[in-house]
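Lecture 7 notes: from sequence to structure.
We start with the chain below.
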Amino acid sequence: MPIALVAATAKEMRGALGFLQDPPEVAPGREELLVLAGREIVPCVTGLGVVNAALALGRILSLPGIEGVVNLGLAGAFDLRALPLGSICVVRQEIWPEYGLLGPRGADPRALGFALGEADGAAVWDRLDLHPRQAAARLDLGLSGLWPEAVSLTVSGVTGTPERAAELERSFRADVENMEGFALAYGCARAGTPFVELRSISNRVGSRPPVDWDLDLALSRLGVACAALFMNR
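Predicted structure tokens for the same chain:
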């Protein structure tokens, strides 16, 4: 049974599959079966953001026999001392900080009176606990114990100022910021599909100077992470 390997962009997918001698070029919206270290996988490029991620996931989960979903992608870290550029983290909780009634202190998810839905018998508001170690075990993936676990914020607008970064970190005690994780995690939880999300740190959240960015290193580390998942079982 195949595992869906999901990335937001073709560049991230190339990074993830870059350890292969002849990596395939994965086109957005076209899912084709690939055998990787004896395992069937279906690589998928979703496009940026929660809407594209949700649409792509619906398409992926409609394919026959999908056993689980692995999301490999880049993320910004709030603290580069804890998660340096190029480091890999395993997401243990996804938060969508933009869901709810917007007020002076941000979005209050319960003020609307409507949860997003249910997963595992519990209401889902603006956050979702993941179980990456259990999911990896079910999928027979080599999830390294050396990779730290992280709390991740999924945003539609990338944080562009230190002030906004400080506000988000203070409000949510998050470690990293991304643009697709919550949609993928929530969709998989609703479907009862094992889900693993790994993020490679490409930048400091809220900082634009080049010294706080290293895209090439982060992309190369996605390949290291992907190889470890599928070949170190």
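Points to note: The two ends are 16 Å apart (CA to CA). The helical segments are 10-16, 49-61, 132-138, 162-172, 181-191, 215-231.
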